[in-house]
Amino acid sequence: MSLLPTRRMRGPAPMGRRDVLRWGALGGIGLSLPQLLRVRAAAAAPGIQRRSSVIIVWLHGGASHLETYDPKPDSGSDFRGPYQPISTSVPGLQLCELLPHQAKLADKFSLLRSLSHSGFCHDDGPQQLFTGHPVQGRRLEPIDPDMMSIVNYLRSSPDRKVPLYVGASPIPYLGSAYLGPSFGVFAVNGDPNDAAFEVPNVGRHTAAVAPQIERRISLRKQLEHLKSEVDQGGDMDAMDRFEQQAWNMLSGEAASRAFDISQEDEKTRNAYGRNRWGQQCLLARRLVEAGVEIVTVTLNGALCGRVGNWDDHAVNHHVFDGLKYRTPFFDQGVAALIEDVHQRGLADNTLIVVAGDFGRTPKISYAASTGEGIASGATGTMQPGRDHWPHAMSFLFSGGGITPGQVIGATDARGEQTIDRRVGVQDFLSTLYRHLGIDALNVQLLNFSGRPVPILQEDTPISELLRRT
């Protein structure tokens, strides 16, 4: 793994292309660790002084845009669901009636209604959105690292006292690929609403873990007399820095406090909803307030209904019963997150994004249920559904210093195709990189084969979603 600068960069000891390739060849899989640290530092976009963060609320399986952010009440009986649009705090902007809490806060977010990509499956949808590559075909993990892992690679520091990138829970089908697992997500898979919730190796587990780390450090220090003979590249100095980062996170108080959701008062916890999704959203706010730069919150599991996600095929769920069951949890949690981030003065630097795999087919399909349960009839019962639809989807953006109350782009009368301001995955990613202060065209990554891969092919952020000057 190594990093190839494509423009002149400011910072300590920038390396040219030949230097990077030479070190990559000598190192087998990339640069020596100290060289890696120097190049990574040099890749940081110059002139960025503010700390910024992103919270991604992920609707795993792909939510219907028609029953959330892009209702089409006049689309006809073959397309229209049973729910009506409602007015919001922004004149002329309507949402589906299933989202009354978010409707009241429309003056604090903007909607993008014209995003599309070519990924028809649950793996290639998120992989396209977060790698920028036109991935198609079944693949459990991407062959290129996702945006969150790349930012972790570029920005992580041994001085950090909390992780840079946390998934509560991680978005499925993503990964750090050839960057290696150390730059992947810090996964929090428990239920923050559970009274026994804790993060392994942080907080209450510290007393057990600390002696193990101390023993490892002591053992290495006993071998330091060999350093002048075996450490020509200075790797042990770099390992000191990474050990310090691990020690900071596992033994320090900052990470323990950030993950300790029990410190929140009952009024705040109740505002988010005393359920897994609401408390995941609250945990995300706590984490960015503590210095975490990227948090993903995946809304799946039992609160979705029988199959545990938003994949509302007729064989899985009765689409409209499923949406009626789960949207109250989603609506309350996201609305509380938006309001809380604004009230606590975090909105200027924290960008909230509500997104999912894709939209759903505007035309309603019917099929026999494969099993009874929440939002699904008994086996064999005919019920309605909506299938995968990457041609049109709606994402919500709040905070990040952007202008709220906007509707960007539009779909046709049935919600089938984008007809105004079409936005692709490169535009979406470019917007996130720009918010985080990453100059996306400034660096490339060398993959396993040594081929330079740009983190973006185009730097085309969505202008309406850029920070206000």
Q: Which bin fits the share of residues in helices?
A: 25-40%
Number of helices: 13
The main pleated sheet reads as: 8 strands, mixed
Mean pLDDT, to the nearest integer, reads: 85
Please state the CA-atom Rg, rounded to the nearest Å: 23 Å
CATH class category: Alpha Beta
DSSP strand content: 15-25%
Q: Report the span from N to C terminus.
A: 37 Å
Domain count, please report it: 1
CATH architecture: 3-Layer(aba) Sandwich
Morphology call: globular
Number of strands: 19
Class from helix and strand fractions: alpha/beta
Write the layout of secondary structure elements.
Blueprint lengths: L1 E4 L11 H11 L5 H10 L10 E7 L25 E3 L6 E3 L3 H5 L4 E7 L8 H8 L15 H9 L9 E3 L18 E2 L18 H17 L4 H4 L4 H17 L1 H7 L6 H7 L3 H15 L3 E5 L20 H25 L6 E7 L2 E2 L4 E4 L13 E4 L2 E2 L3 E7 L7 E2 L1 E2 L6 E3 L4 H11 L7 E4 L5 E3 L15
Parallel strand pairs: 2-8, 2-9, 5-15, 6-7, 6-8
Antiparallel strand pairs: 1-18, 3-4, 5-14, 9-14, 10-13, 11-12, 16-17, 18-19
Helix pairs in contact: 4-13, 6-8, 8-9, 9-11, 10-11, 11-12
Outline of the structure:
The chain is α/β, with parallel strands linked by helices and 469 residues long. The protein has helices spanning 17-27, 33-42, 100-104, 124-131, 147-155, 206-222, 227-230, 235-251, 253-259, 266-272, 276-290, 319-343, 425-435, and strands at 2-5, 53-59, 85-87, 94-96, 109-115, 165-167, 186-187, 294-298, 350-356, 359-360, 365-368, 382-385, 388-389, 393-399, 407-408, 410-411, 418-420, 443-446, 452-454.
